[in-house]
Each structure stands twice: as C-alpha cells, then as structure tokens.
Prior knowledge:
The protein has helices at 14-27, 40-47, 51-63, 89-103, 108-122; strands spanning 67-70, 74-77. By secondary structure, the protein is mostly helical.
Amino acid sequence: MLEYRIDRRSGIATYVQIVQQTKQALRLGLLEPGDKLPTAREVVEATAINPNTVLKAYRELEREGLVEAKRGLGTFIRKSLGSAPAESPLHGELADWARRARDAGLERDDVAALFTSVLEQHFEGDGEA
C-alpha cells in the first residue's frame, strides 16, 4: 500500500504532495487500476495531518479522473499514468546518476534543480515534465 511522506519544510501544500506522490506511484506502476488508496484515517495516523487535507487531495485526484470514491468501500485507482515502471533499466541508470551526484557533493536541491533544467531542455513544450 502507498505510504505518503509529507515534507513540511518543502513549501508545497500538503494536499499537493499527496496528489504528486499518488501520480508518481501511478507513473511508476506502483499503483494500478483497481488498487485501493489508504483511507483518510490511515493517512492521518501515519502522517499526523488534518483529515480534510487528505480528502482535499483525494477529491483533486477524483476531479482529474484518476481515482473513484466508492461510498463505504474506499477510494480506488481508475487509470494509470505513464509507462516508466520502477524496474525499468532507466530507473537503475538514474539511481546511479543520483548516487554520483551525491558523491560529488551536490545537495538534494542542487540535484533537483539540475535534473529539472535538463527535463525542461529536453521536454520543452510537452506540458507537465
């Protein structure tokens, strides 16, 4: 089951972090249509956030057509995103690159900025990168 990790220092709204992490899990194939998301209560217990924040994130995912709430049963994945499974050879190559960047003394934010600039360069005009 998906476990959300909330970074309170990121400056990104908590509900947006939940939406982003759910989408990432969909893109990586960690979540598939029919899978059940953790209940709001489970997320609250694991992260100590407000239940309304979880519900806001789930409503956003539902608005985007990615999940479906079934009264009394839970919230379920409706469709997947992307085609980059976690076991892809590219995942290993990227993990190696990230290790080399860390070993070279780059901080997490430096790596993120570098990676984002490369994404923007190679995926310009593709919308969400």
